[in-house]
Automatic annotation (TrEMBL):
<dbReference type="GO" id="GO:0016747">
    <property type="term" value="F:acyltransferase activity, transferring groups other than amino-acyl groups"/>
</dbReference>
<feature type="region of interest" description="Disordered">
    <location>
        <begin position="1"/>
        <end position="20"/>
    </location>
</feature>
<dbReference type="Pfam" id="PF00583">
    <property type="entry name" value="Acetyltransf_1"/>
</dbReference>
<dbReference type="InterPro" id="IPR000182">
    <property type="entry name" value="GNAT_dom"/>
</dbReference>
<keyword id="KW-0808">Transferase</keyword>
<feature type="domain" description="N-acetyltransferase">
    <location>
        <begin position="17"/>
        <end position="179"/>
    </location>
</feature>
<dbReference type="InterPro" id="IPR016181">
    <property type="entry name" value="Acyl_CoA_acyltransferase"/>
</dbReference>
<protein>
    <submittedName>
        <fullName>GNAT family N-acetyltransferase</fullName>
    </submittedName>
</protein>
Length: 182
């Protein structure tokens, strides 16, 4: 596994005041939360760990006093036309990324409705701008397409079907343009 230098730069302080950079010791709690929230999309801890190692600036946790980790973000620069299949290793980040890929944003149900998802998107949008990409991209799965559409994401055509299917029968690749900086 190689590590690209540009996304590993220290992340600025979170915009929301809630999210913080993910640490290696957070991975067991992230894995447990992912298993609970995404039972139809299991991933090995080593896959999650690789994303955190390759792009620490794109991986956050939402602290929860009751559970330790109440949410997480796993994201990284990538190529929009070829999103990674579920539970696959990236090995390295692309030299010429054209999107900031939101591999997963998950928040425990008892913490939803506080604006943390919007805060995470603001943080990742700022990170994408720093990397010079013009799009956020993701794979909406497990009934989340309407949520992402509400947040301005639209379907992407032409994604390899085997990649889309790896996220489940209702998976939909989506993207949202990054607006100019204010």
């Amino acid at each position: 596994m190689t590590r690209s230098g540009h996304p590993a730069a220290p992340m600025p302080p979170p915009l929301s005041g809630q999210w913080r950079p993910m640490q290696a010791e957070d991975l067991p709690a992230v894995e447990a939360l992912a298993a609970r929230l995404h039972p139809g999309c299991p991933e090995r801890r080593t896959v999650l760990e690789e994303r955190q190692t390759l792009c620490p600036a794109g991986c956050l946790v939402l602290p929860d006093p009751a559970a330790g980790v109440g949410g997480y973000v796993l994201s990284h620069p990538w190529r929009m036309a070829s999103p990674p299949a579920l539970d696959t290793y990236l090995r390295h980040l692309p030299e010429r990324a054209d999107c900031w890929y939101l591999h997963d944003i998950a928040i425990a149900s008892h913490l939803r409705g506080r604006g943390d998802m919007h805060a995470a998107l603001r943080i990742m949008t700022a990170q994408a701008r720093r990397q010079g990409v013009a799009w956020l991209a993701l794979m909406a799965a497990e009934g989340a397409r309407a949520v992402w559409a509400h947040m301005g994401f639209t379907p992407i055509a032409g994604i390899p079907p085997h990649v889309t299917r790896s996220y489940g029968p209702d998976a939909c690749p989506m993207r949202r343009a990054i607006p100019p900086a204010p």
